Amino acid sequence: MFSYREPLPGDWDTKLDSFQKLLVLRCLRADSLVQGLQDFVSAQLGQRFIEPQTSDLSVVFTESSPSTPLIFVLSPGTDPAADLYKFADVMQFSKKMNAISLGQGQGPWAETLMHAAMKRGQWVFFQNCHLAPSWMPALERLIENIDPVKVHKDFRLWLTSLPSNKFPVSILQNGSKMTIEPPKGIKANLQKTYLRLTNDFISSSTKATHLKSLLLSLCLFHGIALERRKFGPLGFNIPYEFTDGDLNICISQLKMFLDEYQDVPYKVLTYTAGEINYGGRVTDDWDRRCLLSVLEDFYCPAVLIDNYVYSSSGVYRQIDTNLDIKGYLAYIRGLPINDTPDIFGLHDNANISFAQNETFALLGAVLRLQPRAASAGGKSLEEKVEEIVAGIVEKIPQPFSVQEVMEKYPVRYEESMNTVLIQEVIRYNKLLEVISKSLRDIVKALKGLVVMSSELELMANSLFNNMVPDMWKAKAYPSLKPLASWVSDLLQRIDFLQRWIHYGIPPVFWISGFFFPQAFLTGTLQNYARRSGTSIDTIGFDFEVIGKSVSEITEKPNTGCYIQGLFLEGARWDNQTGQLTDSRPKELYTEMALIWLIPKPNRKPPTSGVYICPIYKTLTRAGTLSTTGHSTNYVISVELPTDHIQRHWIKRGVALICALDY
């Protein structure tokens, strides 16, 4: 077992200082770098710099005055209002506090409240300032005009706002700013919820024992729905902002339905929570499938069994229902601070993906803060960019001759692949033209022959940081690769098309090489429809995984096509058994075997024994909704044989990916 605190071998341990050791850690185990950095900061600056600070409103309040506003900077999943009302109670100001949620038309009303409060010595609480950008200049004026002599000494102005560029800078500079971080981890989420609950609420139910069991289940589900986000696309394609409000309405409904129905109405509970309260926020169909699969484990008859365990480790389980809220809180305090991936239904490798993403996000932020000035002896940005440009220029080929391709592969009724090829060639040509022109322009700009426009300056910075320039991305296919890998991937894609043009339709298609894979899939269905005289909208794909390697296949199949170049994330393909199986430790992505797509009319998909696995273009999985009604990142879903229930793979976030990020 590797530990990031492991001493380095030989005399490297004494040769390198603590910062240089971090560089070694970054190269060998990027997933452990954040922990290494925590140790470094703790040793250099002190432990308190890495521990979350608790928010104590009384401390902030004692330092404030009537003319300095107190500003809560909102972060997703938190609501400081409850904390403020509690604090107002303690200070005996709950009767003397006026709150208003800002929005359209609320400005004059807020102004009146503020003037009255300044005279009477009350508190005013303006929520969601970001929703009233047009009224912000008026608020700025009001605060500037507060006369410290005339204003009542008890007057205080509390504000909440999301980070917004419309928020007046002068208010920020003169005010006291606080932010409340949402609780991190399932333990902290459970604790937060159970501290709000009362024994009276539970004992007033006619089915108190059922309520206790299902309530723990529901709170665990809420924690998991929130915490799955940290695993990125393995958790959910889109990170949804589930709130305490979603949980509170589910708790009220749970109690109401238990009291109203004789038996526990699992169907009603699952529908209201999964499709409405939580599901109402979910915009991606694959995420809804995942959310409902997770919920199935928590709203089911099994959870009413004594000592029911939710995870294979047995840490998260049902406890004695005779205990009161205090007993439940004692159990929650004994839970681990860091969640284990098994409670989410994820593989242990998910933690590595999460840790790596956290590291790269941190390093990306550090890189953007780096000064651009060159030190003596080092190469300047201009010299470095010139070198990179020269390296790319000699690799980038000339655009394809569309005329020649059209002569060799004319549009033919019985061969749709010719149309697919021509469309791909046109798309790649547009990209190659943009790359060639911008590279020529930047060389001239660096030499001072033309003006360095803001676009070219951005491009130079991107090239310097080994990132793909935005003007290329705008004309390119989705990709997460850094610049060097992106260029070699582009050359492979062009080589794939050149071989197709030169040698004819390939026996195996490299699906990742297409600019627009959906057109290729439609072309395959169209070929079958035209040959068999069947309507294209009645045809679907059947799937067969082929155990052969690409080099063994020399002829294309009679119907359909072979595709290759996919990677599995969250699981691996076992060629021996011919089915999906769990990933090996530390193997985040594995190559998928060849898949044979076989068009079949009026096909009925199998109901069991398969996992319906989506194919995405990149690892982010989420895209924007395009005119075709699909996400720009989603390609198609394939059925992969498995001996597990489908829910097992859904919770693991298993998907096929066309291209990785390196």
From TrEMBL:
Gene3D superfamilies in the cross-refs: 1.20.1270.280, 3.10.490.20, P-loop containing nucleotide triphosphate hydrolases, Region D6 of dynein motor
Domain Dynein heavy chain region D6 P-loop: 66-179
Pfam families hit by this protein: AAA_lid_11 (PF18198), Dynein_C (PF18199), Dynein_heavy (PF03028)
Residues in Dynein heavy chain AAA lid domain copies: 212-350
Start and end residues of each Dynein heavy chain C-terminal domain: 356-658
A GO cellular component entry from the record: dynein complex
Biological processes annotated in GO: microtubule-based movement
Molecular functions (GO terms): dynein intermediate chain binding; dynein light intermediate chain binding; minus-end-directed microtubule motor activity
Protein name in UniProt: Dynein axonemal heavy chain 1
